[in-house]
Amino acid sequence: MAIDRSIIGSRSPEHSVDVERGRLRFFARATGQSDPVYTDPEAAKAAGHRDLPVPPTFLFCLDMDNPDRGRFLADLGVDIRTILHGGQAFEYHAQAYAGDRLTFSTVVEDVYAKRGGALEFIVRATHVTRDGEPVATLTGTVVVRDPKAA
């Protein structure tokens, strides 16, 4: 299945997420964070933060809260059994905190093929903002395998 390059520039519907302290604490424990700045609001404030800071990769978890996250590939006719995670990159512009409401806006930046079309790559950038101001850019690559290719 060839993915039409005309999807470059297309946007998925925005979604917003409230950053909750409980989820931040859970993530900190799950990822082995021992610094109390990620679990104790008083320690965070003593370190110069206004509340619990959002750990770097937690923004990816928040993006997964998108109620339509599977729709993009379904609309392309991609069978999710043929996809692989091809990469993830993070660029940070500002610190996010518990209590923030973050908005996620995703755009297709590139589509290309390798191995004679056996592997197709879809590169999407998700722009994270708080009150319209940039917080981060998450760039993810999905690889779509052609099940007919050997």
UniProtKB/TrEMBL annotation:
Residues 7-137 form the FAS1-like dehydratase domain. InterPro entries: FAS1-like_DH_region, HadA-like, HotDog_dom_sf. This is MaoC family dehydratase N-terminal domain-containing protein. It comes from Kitasatospora saccharophila.
